[in-house]
Amino acid sequence: MCSTLARASLSPARTRSKRMAEMTDLQLFNSLTRKLETFEPVHPGEARVYTCGPTVYNYPHIGNMRAYVFADVLGRTLSWKGFKLTHVINITDVDDKLINKAHELGVEVKQVRLRSQSSRWGSCSSSGTINYNWRLILAPPHVLDYVAAHEVAHLVEMNHSPAFWATVARTLPDMDRGRAWLKAHGRELMAWQAPATRQ
């Protein structure tokens, strides 16, 4: 505990450089070479971690959790050792839905972001960026289908005109099912807050 307090009193830059200087080599098992290898970043002082995201169509099990626990521990270790960490998690099913619906409409999604929006399930910019409310991963799959169809349709019609709704229906004929679910359960889902993260 004393060493933790002493480190906390140092400036962030000094703490980082001290950790980098003191750190022992971080070794990871490389499944390609089947050897234990020393971690060497592509860019000095920076680390990038990419992990596949959850399957949003089924309940998680202990096998799924192992990957996230490992990625979390690795990320925290790299951060503690002073690396500037970039951690990306891919939510494949979100991307797939958008890509498929955009292809059907002949438009292109440039970027997808998960955000903590307080009143919207999604948004779309004219530049092709689509934002999803992260709470949608807690909703049934048909709701995600609806929001994907809705936001991609905005790349064709940036309004809520009859032409817009016809475009949504073109990629998702049963769009009313997702809309009805959000109308019935959306307020409760929007109120859900993620647990506070530990520092």
- What is the first-to-last residue Cα distance? 15 Å
Proportion of β residues? 15-25%
CATH homologous superfamily caption of the largest domain: Metalloproteases ("zincins"), catalytic domain
Structural class: alpha/beta
Largest sheet: 3 strands, mixed
Uncertain residue ranges: 1-12
Strand order of the main beta sheet, please? 5-7-6
Count of all domains: 2
Count of separate DSSP helical elements = 7
CATH topology of the largest domain: Zincin-like
Tell me the Rg in angstroms: 22 Å
CATH architecture annotation name of the largest domain: 2-Layer Sandwich
Helical amount: 40-55%
CATH class of the largest domain: Alpha Beta
H/E element string?
A: HHEEEHEHEEEHHH
> What is the arithmetic mean of pLDDT?
80
Principal-axis shape equals elongated
Number of strands: 7
Please supply descriptive tags for the structure shown above.
single chain, 199 residues, alpha/beta, Zincin-like, 2 domains, 3-stranded mixed sheet, two-stranded antiparallel sheet, 18% strand, elongated, disordered N terminus
